[in-house]
Amino acid sequence: MTIKNGTVRIGFIADIINDPKTGLQAYVITPNSPNAANFDPDKVQHVTVMYRGSTGVNHLAGTDELGHDARQDWFQNDVPITGKVKAPITNMSERVHNQLANSLGGNADQATPQLKAGGRALSREMGIYRNAQFDVYGHSLGAAVGAYALGAISEEKGQRIRQAFLYEGPNVYGLMNDAQRARVAKLKQSIFNYIDSKDPVALGYDDPAVGTVIEVDSKKTGDVTKQHMWGGYQYDQNGNIKASASDMLAVQLERLNVLYETYQASGTLTASQQILLDAAAAMSLVKSVETTAIEALNNMIKMWRKAIVEAQTLWQEAQLTAALVGPHLSHQEMHDALARGGVTKALVVDGPTDYYEGQIQQAQFLKTEFKIFVNNIRSGINQQIANDQTLAKGFKAWD
């Protein structure tokens, strides 16, 4: 399996899961080819499970395999999940809900067939690759399946979940029983749940959710399907998804924690590894501060530019009003009359514009200074690790 037009290999497809009964579809990816003569599942250190989303509604009426799959996805899973998420049992008053939950012995598992099948599949693969760390990915229905699966596996297997990245799925936390909720709670810092508030599929996130919920800084596409298929996502110059600085700092710090655990698994940290961890932590915090500061400065610049336009509009409206009230007055007489009332271009437009433009220049200067500051720190870090090529490569990949 490759990305970027075949230039980057991310692994080999070790298994394709296709369950016609529930509609579950997923890919299991390993670093080495399962067809190699020396392939040993016990020696595999890392496995990725990718859950596929729903087959398009345009296939619902089809008589082929795609039609069958679409009907399994939508009628057995998407529609029931939406109904349960939009009107979950927790919408009752807290007191009544707690009484009912206690009388039943806790929250019940309300999962659909595909959610349950996804949990069984992840548990099975973790049994096959019993020494491997696992990453989980999913989009739309695949995100819902992935989220549920993380709660459905045993606590012991949950300790081998490295990271999970879920996109644009409904919040299935309310469909889990108490034990499943407890398991995903322990994995909260390793699960990143990306949602676009403009996507109607990503619903139910006003309630407790699986993982760290990251609301992306999205644009409106005007097309429901495009919005759902990452069309509203925006990216920075490094290709990272744009979101709030605090959310992205949480993601970076968890990545750092995974890196630390990877190093720890091989024994005591070396001096080089400790330098990399320190450098990465410093860079995460600096970038977070930079993002927050730049965002605040951009908002202020936008506000000041709007104020300049409003001042110009106010002056135009004042002149128009004067012309309507005194149509017999000349242009100069009209301006004299406005001045006697304390309304002049210098007061309404020129003075405020000079002030706001000065503030804008100062904000632009601060933006430049912040960028220089971050670049200087990055240069210092690069100089520190320049003599260790392995370390430098590791930092570049992480940063």
Describe this structure in words.
By secondary structure, this protein is of the alpha/beta class. The protein has twelve helices and nine strands. The chain has helices at about 65-85, 95-105, 115-130, 140-150, 155-160, 180-185, 225-230, 245-265, 270-325, 330-340, 345-385, 390-399; strands spanning about 1-5, 10, 10-20, 25-30, 45-50, 135-140, 160-165, 190-195, 210-215. The strands form two sheets. The chain has a seven-stranded mixed sheet with strand order 3-4-5-6-7-8-9, with helices on both faces. Strands 1-2 form a two-stranded antiparallel sheet. Helix 6 links the parallel strand 7 (about 160-165) and strand 8. Helix 8 (about 245-265) runs antiparallel to helix 9. The longest helix has about 55 residues, at about 270-325. The chain is globular, with a radius of gyration of 28 Å. Residues about 90-95 have low confidence and may be disordered.
Task: Give a brief description.
This protein has 399 residues and is of the alpha/beta class. The chain has helices at residues 65-86, 94-103, 113-128, 141-152, 155-158, 178-186, 224-231, 245-265, 271-325, 331-340, 345-385, 389-398; strands at 2-3, 8-9, 12-19, 24-30, 46-51, 133-139, 161-167, 191-195, 212-215. The radius of gyration is 28 Å and the shape is globular.
Low-confidence stretches: 88-95
Q: Into which percent range does the helicity of residues fall?
A: 40-55%
Summarize model confidence as the mean pLDDT: 84
Number of helices: 12
Oligomer: single chain
H/E series: EEEEEHHHEHHEHEEHHHHHH
Number of strands: 9
**Largest sheet, described in full?**
7 strands, mixed
Beta-strand share of residues: 5-15%
Lateral strand order in the biggest sheet: 3-4-5-6-7-8-9
Query: What is the rounded distance between the termini?
Result: 24 Å
Rounded Rg: 28 Å
Tell me the structural class: alpha/beta
Shape: globular
